[in-house]
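Methods: holo model generation. Sequences were used as deposited, without trimming of termini or removal of tags, and paired with ligand SMILES retrieved from the corresponding compound records. Each pair was processed once, and we did not select among multiple samples. The sequence and adenosine-5'-triphosphate SMILES for this entry were:
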Amino acid sequence: MSLLKIQHLSKSFEDKKAVNHISFTLEKGEILGILGESGSGKTTLLHLIGAFQEPDEGTLLLENKRITPPSQKLIAGHPDIKLVRQDYGLFPNISIRENIAYELRYYEENYRNKRVDKLLKLSRLDKVQSHLPREVSGGEQQRAVIVKAIAEQPKLLLLDEPFSHLDAVNKRKLKVEILKLIKSEEVSCIFVTHDVSDAYGMADYLAIMRKGKMLQVDAPQKVYQHPLNQYVAEITGEVNVVSIEWLARVGLSNLPNVFIRPEQIFVAPESNLKAGVVALKFLGNYYEVIISIGEQELKMFSFVPLKVGEEIGVDIRH
Ligand SMILES: Nc1ncnc2c1ncn2[C@@H]1O[C@H](COP(=O)(O)OP(=O)(O)OP(=O)(O)O)[C@@H](O)[C@H]1O
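and the model returned the structure below.
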């Protein structure tokens, strides 16, 4: 039995389809990352799943039971689904510990204290538990927000842009921490982002959304290596888009598609495929190199500097 089953879900605002006939399933313990540019319908989709917005059509099942839409109950939301919104914050005048304990206020004190201790330890917030939110780092605040959301052991956690206000270093750390938390608490999770690097290393499955539609859902590696179309290829990473005719002309018809990632191209002095070095950019631990093969320019990466103007042999791996 799937944890979440969504079928033909749609939602329009006036004449605009924010979510357009979306269907997918999520199994227990899985993490789904939804990637899409601003306005693609990601937040609307999360709000529909969490029963905060009313779908126009479609079915939403959590463990085979219908998720009741907000129009049919007093309070919007679902007891087993927690949504962490982009602006979801902490109470500013109580400690991190009290913020987490608040979520468990209706539980017996002994259980509450034990659970808060466990969560603080799991999230490595135990050292700052007596601090006010403004006295801890942005990463710690965000961790506390997520701990609050999983305190009551929801079946499904929905995160709206969980990393958007963190720098690259803190983002990397937070991803590891969240992953640990989610996996050890066995909660399933759907998070949305407009930055593919947020999804890699975190999502078991990656869904690409555009104009309300889900274009492709698969393991991140599969989406990256076999993008359905140019849009998916470009939003999931750097890519050279060539034509089938060009592939045939240079003897590369064996490649699976017309999307060539820069790291597929490598220097091979013995190769018959010759390229001219057009430009070189130093990017820290590697160089970004523009080469031309005939009239086709391609981007590749190199760990050693190449000379602009030199001719090199190259090969392209599958
Ligand atoms: N309450 C609303 N009323 C009218 N239009 C809305 C409403 N909510 C969303 N929309 C529209 O629906 C479309 C999808 O919006 P949504 O916020 O779901 O996209 P998103 O992918 O989450 O964008 P972002 O990354 O900027 O948050 C947008 O065109 C938006 O303007």
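The CA atoms of residues 97 and 129 lie 5 Å apart.
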